[in-house]
């Protein structure tokens, strides 16, 4: 079962790619996706599909990553479909909400754009170990030290969030499995009982996560953890010409797409 933030080990060019390039590529691709039109977005979808196949990731894993966001995807589609302005389709003029061909196209386009953003982020987490991702993020945030910002502490908090997110989802699945083993069926309850059960469920998950966080805090204190600059076992490769060229290409591509979007 896929958990958000989980790394899947494999031997593919995407897995072996420098994490700094992948992180910069995802940020640049996200900006480009927000600026593209309908037809170029289809090519981005095909490119993401090719990356998924090339990295050896199963489409079932991508589906499991999108499943928790299915409600929001459907909501985005319905909002843009029924609230967009346009001439109503034949036979729908009597409906309370407008239902036009333009609204349907806009709903599909915006939903597809959201899915592409999520898939790009999922590919980054699936093909990059958390330690390498933290090292890449630290590399890009180093200039902020000149502004006297606590970059090392910020990176440490991000690392803890990445580590605890799978724990949170694991606790959720463990409680759900224990309820199913006891024959508990929430669908047989009334609405008030469902709300009470949901609140109890959330409270139990948060309690378990806080317990884990307290254990982690005690372990850090026992190891005499001190805030400030820290070393890492992950050593990124020195910056070479290829790395600079790829980052420059990503920047130029984003800049070119921005020019086309605003002045084209």
Rg over alpha carbons: 23 Å
- Listing every helix as H and every strand as E from the N terminus to the C terminus, the arrangement reads HHHHHHHHHH
Assembly state (oligomeric): single chain
Structural class: mainly alpha
Count of folded domains: 2
Mean pLDDT metric? 78
State the end-to-end distance: 45 Å
By DSSP, the count of extended strands is 0
Helix content: over 70%
Using the alpha-carbon principal axes, give the shape. Answer: globular
**Regions with little confidence, pLDDT below 50 for 5+ residues:** none
List key phrases describing it.
0% strand; single chain; mainly alpha; 264 residues
Characterise the protein shown here.
- 70% of the residues lie in helices and 0% in strands.
- It has 264 residues and is mainly alpha-helical.
- The protein has 2 domains: 1-150 and 234-264, no CATH class; 152-227, no CATH class.
- Helix 5 (70-83) runs antiparallel to helix 6 (101-127) and helix 8 (151-181) packs across helix 9 (191-222).
- It starts with 12 loop residues before the first helix and ends with a helix.
Quick overview:
By secondary structure, the protein is mainly alpha-helical.
Topology overview:
Blueprint: H1 13-16, H2 19-35, H3 38-55, H4 59-66, H5 70-83, H6 101-127, H7 130-141, H8 151-181, H9 191-222, H10 241-263
């Amino acid at each position: 079962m896929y958990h958000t933030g989980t790394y899947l080990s494999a031997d593919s060019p995407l897995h072996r790619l420098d994490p700094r390039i992948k992180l910069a590529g995802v940020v640049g691709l996200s900006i480009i996706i927000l600026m593209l039109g309908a037809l170029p977005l289809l090519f981005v979808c095909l490119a993401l599909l090719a990356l998924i196949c090339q990295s050896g990731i199963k489409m079932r894993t991508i589906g499991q990553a999108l499943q928790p966001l299915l409600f929001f995807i459907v909501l985005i589609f319905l909002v843009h479909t029924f609230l967009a302005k346009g001439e109503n389709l034949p036979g729908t003029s009597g409906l309370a909400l407008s239902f036009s061909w333009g609204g349907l196209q806009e709903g599909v386009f915006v939903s597809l754009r959201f899915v592409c953003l999520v898939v790009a982020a999922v590919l980054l987490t699936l093909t990059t170990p958390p330690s390498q991702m933290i090292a890449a993020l630290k590399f890009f945030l180093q200039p902020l030290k000149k502004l006297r910002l606590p970059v090392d502490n910020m990176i440490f908090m991000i690392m803890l969030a990445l580590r605890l997110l799978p724990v949170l989802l694991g606790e959720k699945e463990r409680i759900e499995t224990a309820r199913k083993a006891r024959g508990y069926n929430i669908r047989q309850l009334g609405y008030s009982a469902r709300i009470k059960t949901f609140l109890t469920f959330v409270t139990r998950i948060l309690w378990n996560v806080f317990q884990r966080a307290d254990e982690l805090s005690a372990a850090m204190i026992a190891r005499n953890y001190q805030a400030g600059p820290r070393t890492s076992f992950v050593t990124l490769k020195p910056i070479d010409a290829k790395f600079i060229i790829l980052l420059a290409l990503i920047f130029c591509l984003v800049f070119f797409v921005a020019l086309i979007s605003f002045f084209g």
